[in-house]
Structures are given as structure tokens and as C-alpha cells.
Amino acid sequence: MRALLQRVSRASVVVEREVVGEIGEGLLILLGVGQGDGESQVKALADKIVNLRIFRDDEGKMNRSLLDVQGQALVVSQFTLYADMRRGRRPSFTDAAPPARAEPLVECFKDALAGYGVDVAGGIFGAHMDVMLCNDGPVTIWLDSEELGR
User: Fold this and answer.
1) Rounded mean pLDDT of 122-146?
2) In this structure, is residue 149 part of a structural domain?
3) Model pTM?
4) Does the annotation mark 109 as catalytic?
5) Does residue 150 lie in a domain region?
6) How many structural domains compose the chain?
7) Is 55 designated active site?
8) CA angle 35, 42, 27 (to 5 degrees)
9) Catalytically annotated residue among 6, 55, 72, 79
10) What is the share, in percent, of the chain residues with pLDDT greater than 90?
11) Residue 133 pairs with which residues in a beta bridge?
């Protein structure tokens, strides 16, 4: 699994001119599911994300986690995180899991975050979405579950 985290003061997702998910302070998580991903990747990534110390403390240092600040999470499925640009000019997405496999894992990921007590919102899987955010910092962090165990 791959996740692009953006620390936000607010974020929302609109589908067909209707807000389908929105949060205040927390993380916008663009989530890609790969071919070989399963529940172990979900659990490892969720645990890493909720405990990352990327929120400011009283001295302005990144020293607090999503749990510490009682932040929210907006999860948006994004298969394009698996774009392969090694050849040609059009990206290949063959490393991304097919929708029938990816959608349940995205929902499992949202449930895993909620299991930590995080208020979780989301987009609509497979829909064309407009994602709006106010990036706080800006702080943007890339995570790949394959690299977590190294």
C-alpha cells in the first residue's frame, strides 16, 4: 500500500457538486492499494500513520501524533499512486490492485484508523472526485508499506 499524507487544517471531497467527506485538523490520506496488498499492510500502515509525530507541539516542533491532537482523517482512494512511468509517456497502472480487491482494503484501512478512535471521512471509491485541502505547513509525507519493515 502507498499513502501520500498531507497535514491539513481542513479538507473535503466533492462528487457531483456534493460534499461527500470533510474534516478539520488532521490528515488527508491519498491511498493506493497494490497487487499484493492485504490486511497485514493495512494494519502496519494504519498504525504507522496514527502514531507519526508530524503535528506541532506548543513549541512549534513536530512532536505530536494524529492521536495526540485528536485529529481527523480524510481517506481518498488513489490508484494513480501506482503509476509506472519507466517506459513511454502514458503511465501504466498494472501494479495497482483491481477495484474488486482494492475497495474492500480501502474500507478496511478506514476501519483500522477508526479503531484507534480517529474520526474518519472518505471519498467515493471509483468516482471522479474534487479534493480540496488547506495544507498545514505544508507537510506532505510519502509512505510505502514495502518500506516500513526495512
Assistant:
1) 95
2) no
3) 0.95
4) no
5) no
6) 1
7) no
8) 115
9) 79
10) 97
11) 11
